[in-house]
Predict the structure.
Amino acid sequence: MKRETCSKPDSRDGCNKKMESERINRTELSRKAVHLLGVLIPILYLRFEEEFLCLFLPLAALFFTLELLRLKIAAVGKWYLLLFGRMLRPDEQDQPSGGFYFVLGAVATILLFPRDIAISALLVLAVSDSAAAFIGQRYGRRQIFGKTPAGSSAFFFSAWFVLAVYFGDNPLKHLPAALLGTLVEALPWPLNDNLTIPIMVGLACWLML
């Protein structure tokens, strides 16, 4: 098979941009694959409530401390980047990472809402946010506020499905929560959506149940 070459300056620029775009897409897909593993948080909370909280909350505090240290102490930050730098977006190297907001969102949701609502909201965060990224990158063509209609549709329908299956009652009751979660994920808000999605979905579920 003949390998594509970039001999001319214009061709090299085009190839470099294409390679950078592919690298970013691989990074984002890797992040969302790890993000999807976050489904273990609500599953373990469902299965082992007290034992899970006794383990998860201290580990979350430890993670927050590590995140603070890597932002404040250069040596810790350098070590952190060597291990996890490929998973960070450029703007996260000197700011809190998406993982920080994911764990913060999980802790806040667990502390704010009853158990079933917290579990359902965290399932939506893990499943639907990942679905939006995978479908958006695979099938999305147009972007609105940096998000694709295909990805937003994947978020909405997967969130609706997750909530309807988890609660096992009238599916129409969960349309507002799925729609609110979709809007929070799709629109440009000042706060990271790993924090806002589970809180807003949890609030909508709490109001509707």
Observations:
- Confidence is low (pLDDT under 50) at residues 16-21.
- The two ends are 59 Å apart (CA to CA).
